[in-house]
Design goal:
homodimer; mainly alpha; Tetracycline Repressor, domain 2; 8 helices; 0% strand; DNA-binding
Chain lengths: 204, 204
DNA sequence: GACCCTGGTGTACGGTGTCAACATTGCTCC
DNA sequence: GGAGCAATGTTGACACCGTACACCAGGGTC
């Protein structure tokens, strides 16, 4: 057995992703991961400051997986649709993709929404990919004429709040054990409700 | 010092509530709590099956505190308002009370939204008090004529998703470090947006 | 007074994250 | 090609955790 591992950092992240898929962040133990990779516990400290750093590294990968899932759903939209309908479909896809991923991959989702505490989003580096997809979808909706420009500001927070809240309620919360059909129907309803609130004339 | 404690269970919960206020659920350690109360670690096991059970017991108290905060906010609504405006104000108070509590008392909030996994809400015993407040507010809005009865079903999930999502985003999520004024403004905007989506005519 | 139930104590086990000191390897430079 | 060195691994230890097991103090009841 070779003394050096080759790429221990990558191996730990890969194994972390594997076990976190079903076990969530709690399954990412220093000793467990190093054991699975076939290395002594402290070897990990050559690549990660502490457990938290390792978890965050795995979380970044999970965030990419979430973004991929959302993009895949966006790609499934029929290309020959009128602009507004297309933009609306894309916005819906962003939300429903988020929700579907949360339910299909709870462990990964738990990681994906983990945030390192280094100020507001976008302050250090670009926005996280899933959030950027939402911003793009909203901008596209404005460009297509499906949303008045005056109502664009802060719309991302309304959307993200609803979608994220629904995802949380149906994974960790009280709707955890509801059957898939019910949850899917509710997801559509909930997403449509925010979009309705966004697009219809209001007070502010 | 008397051999028997008197009411160790209550003492543990009280101390738990005290430390969880700033430390969240993670601060609820068997050894820490028993130490603080002046008792041996294993004494707790006469009253709680395991750590999880203790945390859930404290969580129940926290849930009551959340409900109290929401009720206090509801009580602050001007009594001489037209019925619809009053009902709307009450619904808003439910949402904003939830959000405000989440931000003012993160530790307690983290506990309050903890759910034991015993089926859907209401299946075993009554609904949690905070959720019941939401149901009541929605029903009252229908009674006052502010929401068509046809649109009442499932409305609670749209409301709860948005409000809970916003609470999560502003406590654990990316808006964690935004200043209070900004968050307060966004909270109103977001809550109003769902209500708008609920009350204005839609597709379904 | 003998009994047991309730609610505490002490000790111990296996687990964790992490620190400090040491060993091994491959790369670089004279 | 050998010396030196940085990178990367290992071993051992520490403090801490949740918890199982055996034991014991006190109060209530027959």
């Amino acid at each position: 057995m070779s003394y050096h591992h080759g790429d221990l950092r990558a191996a730990l992240i890969a194994e972390g992703l594997r076990v976190a898929r079903t076990g969530g962040a709690a399954a990412l133990g220093m000793r467990d991961l190093t054991r699975a990779v076939g290395v002594s516990p402290n070897a990990a400290y050559r690549h990660f400051a502490d457990r938290r750093a390792l978890v965050l590294a795995v979380a970044l990968e999970a965030q990419d997986l979430l973004a991929d899932a959302m993009r895949a759903r966006i790609a499934g939209i029929s290309p020959d649709l009128p602009p507004v309908a297309s933009a609306l479909g894309r916005l819906r896809a962003v939300g429903l993709g988020y929700i579907h991923f949360a339910r299909a991959e709870r462990g990964w989702f738990e990681l994906a929404i983990l945030t390192r505490d280094d100020g507001p989003p976008g302050a250090n580096g670009p926005f996280p990919a899933p959030f950027q997809l939402l911003l793009d979808a909203l901008d596209a909706l404005v460009a297509a004429g499906g949303l008045p420009a005056a109502r664009r500001p802060h719309a991302e927070w309304a959307c993200w709040s609803t979608v994220h809240g629904f995802a949380d309620l149906t994974t960790r919360g009280p709707m955890r054990h509801h059957d898939t059909a019910t949850v899917d129907a509710l997801a559509s309803y909930v997403v449509d409700t925010v979009i309705e609130g966004l697009t219809s004339g209001g007070t502010t």
